[in-house]
């Protein structure tokens, strides 16, 4: 930043794109964390003088803003109690289950809500302090839904975008939230609200109509003004996110990754068919359903452990939240039972790995896997499905994909779609995937790769920021006639 008071582009997300470590003497160090969002935004940030506001990931860690790779990183401090109430509580034990079809029951606690409001205000204040006059601020995800309005109240000069990385629930579920109106008002502080799927955008528009009575026309909501402010138009549309497909494709072509993938297969005893599941250990991912189906296929004798094996990577996640602890026990109990029942010496039925791995190891696992199982009960997008495809430059492998992922909207043409609640249906599809002939695999994988390599994450961020920056920068004039109330759904697939 030179000769200016602030940054032209400010990204706000719960976590900063770096991991911090504190040594015994209290010295703080950091290293880049390889997330999709940072890959997508780094080039835009570097071009446009950008700052990133987010939490360090540790309790009570006070770190001054610093520069990393041409970006200004601005850490927000959270106390241990705030982590418990805002992050583990309201974000991940209220909103997360509520927005994922109440697969687990959401807990509603007023103290958690108070902490959520306070922490959102802190993020908004930090973003307001970084942004240049007329700058663009892009706020991310369900942890920060109140930030757009809090920001607009302080800084009406800003262009404000919000992107929801997870599903937006149907009104019938959303209205359980005691603070539903405040959340809607918070989001409507933005100029543009992005969702993964057109269906999420229509759920949001319907919630706005029913809970606020504001006028909507297709994807546009008109937020009425008051004595001080004119009315404004807010747009809600779908911008399906992707991965850095080219880089992932190149990574999977490197001799090291190729060799590692052969080594993985050899270590597994060179099975005829290796199946793979890769998930955060989260109840939305349908891991139990998948393992149950797999166990029944073994029981039915349709596959056997001498020829087929399942590798399940379940990376640790949100381990202080009760529902995640219960899930871990259930999954590990199930894996233990199935291995106890069906494994033979030298042939595990399931290789269960409760770890996270670097991208090189992930690429090698994807390349080694004949069948990739993505069986989420509800999932905003599911980037694992896209990574599997990007890794398969050999045009081999079969993707079994849940209908309940955002990715299914785009990948239905080449994946085998499943309903993970229908265990018999899923068993048949898993067996069909294991037996699919190479010509059919190639035909499908080519189709999938065309899609994933074309729609990469930089296209996603350019498309969102392009629409946001093209929106009129001033509030609509007060004389603007309110548009006619309508029941229309927003325009499908708008934006990307
Ligand atoms: C999902 C959410 C992200 C979140 C990530 C990891 O993808 O959409 O906002 O960062 O899960 O979860 P965590 O709670 O570890 O940040």
TrEMBL record:
<dbReference type="GO" id="GO:0004805">
    <property type="term" value="F:trehalose-phosphatase activity"/>
</dbReference>
<protein>
    <recommendedName>
        <fullName>Trehalose-6-phosphate synthase</fullName>
        <ecNumber>2.4.1.15</ecNumber>
    </recommendedName>
</protein>
<feature type="region of interest" description="Disordered">
    <location>
        <begin position="471"/>
        <end position="496"/>
    </location>
</feature>
<dbReference type="Pfam" id="PF00982">
    <property type="entry name" value="Glyco_transf_20"/>
</dbReference>
<dbReference type="GO" id="GO:0005992">
    <property type="term" value="P:trehalose biosynthetic process"/>
</dbReference>
<keyword id="KW-0808">Transferase</keyword>
<keyword id="KW-0328">Glycosyltransferase</keyword>
<comment type="subunit">
    <text>Homotetramer.</text>
</comment>
<comment type="function">
    <text>Probably involved in the osmoprotection via the biosynthesis of trehalose. Catalyzes the transfer of glucose from UDP-alpha-D-glucose (UDP-Glc) to D-glucose 6-phosphate (Glc-6-P) to form trehalose-6-phosphate. Acts with retention of the anomeric configuration of the UDP-sugar donor.</text>
</comment>
<comment type="pathway">
    <text>Glycan biosynthesis; trehalose biosynthesis.</text>
</comment>
<dbReference type="GO" id="GO:0003825">
    <property type="term" value="F:alpha,alpha-trehalose-phosphate synthase (UDP-forming) activity"/>
</dbReference>
<comment type="similarity">
    <text>Belongs to the glycosyltransferase 20 family.</text>
</comment>
<dbReference type="InterPro" id="IPR012766">
    <property type="entry name" value="Trehalose_OtsA"/>
</dbReference>
<dbReference type="GO" id="GO:0005829">
    <property type="term" value="C:cytosol"/>
</dbReference>
<dbReference type="InterPro" id="IPR001830">
    <property type="entry name" value="Glyco_trans_20"/>
</dbReference>
